[in-house]
């Protein structure tokens, strides 16, 4: 039996939420199904959002667990796959189910999940879909990544005896303030978890302030440190390098609205010092590429677009890499990467992907999602922080002028990523212990 925790009974707010979600589930499904359909997801797979499985539950040896992971989108799912790989090494007889909510994460899972692991779209957080999902899959443990606190799902899984963990726990300050206004409900939901592993001490204290049991809250580092390196298409890299030739290249990756103007201004400055310099500009969301293209035109820079099959020529000053799934390939072009989502208060993006690719990192100050990562990475010499276009241009120029300094920074970034990844074995061991996933599949408090 699963432990009941100290969160008390479900609150009136929880019961109201459960009733409302049951009523609106058919309407919510129409919306999410239409979005999935627009992205090429089949009708059968769309119905997974209603809890209708599209695959059978795997047949397991009597003592082997089915371990369910959930991550909202690509980043969380990649972190989940990191742990799946670690746990598979320790429990080779276990089977793994990964759920997520987006078509892009589903496509990624198809290529990155280990053999035998299954991906399904997550059920809507409503009684009917959740019941059908749990009836079919009957997971022994559920591991939620980062910030997905679905009350109906967590309550129903806990009630059935599924031991639950929240890993890489991350809630924005805004979310924390919102939950603090609903303290009793927050305490009830967090008490469904047997273990809560936060990204850092600050987040651990936030969880405790919301009513989480201090004995169940521990810092667990950032799972993204142990993710496999991004895939690289060697043939594409060779073709791009042929197009670029001997020109110097720098990369601005995962950029958001309001950041490209700063990056393009820095690039214009750099062109005075390096007239043949090429910028590979990679928007976080390729659907913004038309707007980004217009910004490049406004900056009076010449460019080519990846999505249109346009090649880099000697006259190309900016290569707009507006496609999905090729980030690792682009990182292979240059060891000098500015990582977006950081010049504005967005929270930053995963620096481990850059470091694993052998590159050094330039970041803005807005990295609240990685407060446990960027300060020590900067202290180690693997990253530098900039505030504006002049500072960004200066940082790029410094590393282009001093290849030895750039190589030292790349080595520092890679070493930092490797040291962080080694800590994940301890996370896997802790999950096995707290979720009762040991060799005999027994629960400590059974």
Task: Summarize the structure in words.
This protein is of the alpha/beta class and 446 residues long. The chain folds into 2 domains: 12-221 and 423-434, 3-Deoxy-D-manno-octulosonic-acid transferase, N-terminal domain (Rossmann fold); 234-421, Rossmann fold. The chain has helices at residues 12-38, 43-46, 74-90, 103-112, 127-137, 151-159, 173-180, 183-190, 201-209, 234-244, 260-273, 289-298, 327-331, 351-356, 374-379, 389-401, 403-421, 424-434; strands at residues 66-70, 95-100, 118-121, 141-145, 163-169, 195-198, 217-219, 249-255, 278-283, 303-305, 318-320, 336-339, 360-363, 383-385. Strands 3-2-1-4-5-6-7 form a 7-stranded parallel sheet, with helices on both faces. Strand 8, helix 11 (260-273) and strand 9 (278-283) form a beta-alpha-beta unit. The chain starts with 11 loop residues before the first helix and ends in a 12-residue tail after the last helix. 49% of the residues are buried. Mean pLDDT is 92; it is low at 1-5 and 441-446. Keywords: Cell membrane, Lipopolysaccharide biosynthesis, Membrane, Transferase. One of its GO terms (biological process) is lipopolysaccharide core region biosynthetic process. Belongs to the glycosyltransferase group 1 family. Glycosyltransferase 30 subfamily. One of its GO terms (cellular component) is plasma membrane. GO terms for molecular function: Kdo transferase activity.
Could you name the CATH topology of the largest domain?
A: Rossmann fold
Please state the second-level CATH architecture of the largest domain.
3-Layer(aba) Sandwich
Counting helices, strands and paired strands, the structural category is alpha/beta
Strand order of the largest sheet: 3-2-1-4-5-6-7
Q: What percentage of the residues does DSSP assign to strands (E)? A: 5-15%
Largest sheet: 7 strands, parallel
C-alpha Rg, in Å?
23 Å
Domains, number? 2
CATH homologous superfamily placement of the largest domain: 3-Deoxy-D-manno-octulosonic-acid transferase, N-terminal domain
Give the overall shape, derived from the CA principal axes: globular
Helix content: 40-55%
Question: Spans of 5+ residues with little confidence (pLDDT < 50)?
Answer: 1-5, 441-446
Assembly classification: single chain
Pfam family, one: Glycos_transf_N
Pathway: Bacterial outer membrane biogenesis; LPS core biosynthesis
Catalytic activity: lipid IVA (E. coli) + CMP-3-deoxy-beta-D-manno-octulosonate = alpha-Kdo-(2->6)-lipid IVA (E. coli) + CMP + H(+)
Enzyme class: transferase
């Amino acid at each position: 039996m699963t432990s009941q925790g100290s969160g008390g009974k479900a609150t009136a707010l929880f019961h109201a939420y459960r009733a409302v979600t049951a009523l609106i589930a058919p309407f919510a499904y129409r919306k999410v199904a239409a979005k999935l359909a627009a992205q090429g997801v089949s009708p059968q797979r769309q119905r997974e959002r209603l809890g209708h499985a599209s695959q059978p539950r795997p047949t397991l040896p009597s003592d082997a667990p089915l371990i369910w992971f959930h991550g909202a989108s690509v980043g969380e799912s990649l972190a989940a796959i990191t742990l799946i790989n670690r746990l598979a090494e320790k429990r080779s007889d276990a089977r793994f189910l990964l759920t997520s909510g987006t078509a892009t994460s589903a496509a990624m899972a198809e290529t990155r999940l280990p053999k035998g692991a299954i991906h399904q779209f997550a059920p809507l957080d409503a009684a009917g879909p959740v019941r059908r999902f749990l009836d079919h899959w009957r997971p022994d443990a559920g591991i939620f990544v980062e910030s997905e606190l679905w009350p109906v799902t967590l309550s129903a899984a806990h009630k059935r005896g599924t031991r639950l963990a929240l890993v890489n726990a991350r809630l924005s300050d805004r979310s924390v303030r919102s939950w603090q206004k609903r303290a009793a409900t927050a305490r009830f939901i967090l008490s469904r978890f047997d273990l809560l592993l936060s990204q850092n001490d600050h987040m651990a204290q936030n969880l405790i302030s919301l009513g989480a049991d201090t004995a169940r809250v521990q810092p667990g580092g950032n799972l993204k440190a142990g993710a496999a390196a991004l895939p690289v298409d060697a043939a594409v890299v060779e073709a791009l390098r042929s197009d670029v030739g001997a020109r110097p290249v720098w990369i601005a990756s995962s950029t958001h609205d309001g950041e490209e103007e700063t990056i393009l201004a820095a690039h214009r400055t750099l062109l005075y010092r390096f007239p043949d310099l090429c910028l590979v500009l990679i928007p976080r969301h390729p659907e913004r590429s038309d707007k980004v293209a217009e910004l490049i035109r406004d900056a009076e820079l010449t460019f080519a677009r990846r999505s249109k099959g346009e090649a880099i020529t000697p006259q190309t000053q900016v290569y707009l890499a507006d496609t999905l799934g090729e980030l690792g390939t682009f990182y292979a072009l240059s060891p000098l990467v500015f990582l977006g989502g950081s010049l504005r208060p967005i929270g930053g993006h995963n620096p481990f992907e850059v470091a694993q690719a052998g590159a050094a990192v330039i970041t803005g100050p807005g990295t609240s999602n990685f407060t446990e990562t960027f300060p020590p990475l900067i202290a180690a010499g693997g990253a530098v922080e900039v505030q504006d276009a002049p500072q960004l241009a200066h940082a790029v120029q410094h590393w282009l002028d001093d290849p030895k300094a750039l190589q030292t920074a790349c080595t520092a970034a890679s070493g930092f990523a490797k040291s962080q990844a080694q800590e994940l074995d301890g996370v896997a061991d802790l999950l096995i212990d707290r979720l009762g996933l040991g060799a005999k599949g027994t629960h400590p408090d059974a």
